[in-house]
């Protein structure tokens, strides 16, 4: 990792969390000294680019959008957030247009107010995102919590809770508009994976065989779930991702990304995830 930016640390007993003000990116969550979150050793932590790992916040666009010149995943993860409240267990971060780099703000010239709350408990981490439109016009957005989970051996990891849901396979896109449904009880990783599971009504996804216990992902108001691992070739192609890092991580990301959300003037949208160490 290179550089060192301003951080906020939460501590409850033997659990800790660390969040950078740059991007409001959570880069560490430990329970009983065990790190649950993956950050690449080659990640930039000096604000020069989005942090490779942790829980980057995606807003106002997931991926790239044909009608927008914003970079991939928007600007929230590349902006300077303000920590406005902090207790032992909770920190609240705010982002308004003046915290967004000028060049990016000009590409999406809408008024907005984001509130990101991180709450730590003994074996639990809750991250909540509130999106407010204080302007006089409606605007559209997609959003996602891009969580990188630390694992000891990706070949053993399984993700439960996605069977029966349709998905968009970005690695092997289907011909036509038909989308396959997940047939497996446990989704494993044996090559590059980039899937968007859509309209997942099951609000508990479990990551099994991490090497340090199972982790449950409880989601609220996030209908979609992305599973991502770059595998060998893409890992080598990313400058801020180690060649062998793909073995030590899996992204299970909750979001609302399939369809744009239209937020009317004065209205608010909220979504959250709660991560629970379920079995040691």
Automatic annotation (TrEMBL):
Please give the catalytic activity noted in the UniProt record: alpha-D-glucose 6-phosphate = beta-D-glucose 6-phosphate
What is the active site of this protein? 146, 253
Identify a single GO molecular function assigned to this protein: glucose-6-phosphate 1-epimerase activity
| Pfam families in the record | Aldose_epim
Ligand binding (substrate): 52, 72, 77
Q: Does the keyword Ligase apply?
A: no
Q: What class of enzyme is it?
A: isomerase
Task: List the protein's name.
Answer: Glucose-6-phosphate 1-epimerase
State the organism named in the record. Answer: Powellomyces hirtus
């Amino acid at each position: 990792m290179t550089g060192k930016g301003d951080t906020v640390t939460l501590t409850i007993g033997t659990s800790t969390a660390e969040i950078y003000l740059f991007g409001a990116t959570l880069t560490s969550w430990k329970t009983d000294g065990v790190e649950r979150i993956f950050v690449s050793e080659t990640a930039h932590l000096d604000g020069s680019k989005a942090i490779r790992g942790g829980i980057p916040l995606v807003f106002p666009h997931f991926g790239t959008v044909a009608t927008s010149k914003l970079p991939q995943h928007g600007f929230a993860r590349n902006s300077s957030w303000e920590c406005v409240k902090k207790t032992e267990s909770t920190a609240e971060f705010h982002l308004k247009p003046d915290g967004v780099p000028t060049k990016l703000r000009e590409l999406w010239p809408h008024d907005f107010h984001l509130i990101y709350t991180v709450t730590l408990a003994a074996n639990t981490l809750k991250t909540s995102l509130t999106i407010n439109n204080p302007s006089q016009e409606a605007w559209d957005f997609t959003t996602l919590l891009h969580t990188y989970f630390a694992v000891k051996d990706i070949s053993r990891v399984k993700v439960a809770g996605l069977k029966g849901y349709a998905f968009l396979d970005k690695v092997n896109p289907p011909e036509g508009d038909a989308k396959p449904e997940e047939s497996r009880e446990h989704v494993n990783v044996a090559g590059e994976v980039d899937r968007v599971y859509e309209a997942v009504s099951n609000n508990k996804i479990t990551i099994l065989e991490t090497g340090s216990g199972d982790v449950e992902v409880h989601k609220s108001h996030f209908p979609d779930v992305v599973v991502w691992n770059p595998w060998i070739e893409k890992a080598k192609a990313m400058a801020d991702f180690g060649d062998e890092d793909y073995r030590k991580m899996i992204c299970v990301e909750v979001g609302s990304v399939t369809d744009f959300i239209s937020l009317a003037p004065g209205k608010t949208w909220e979504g959250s995830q709660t991560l629970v160490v379920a079995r040691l």
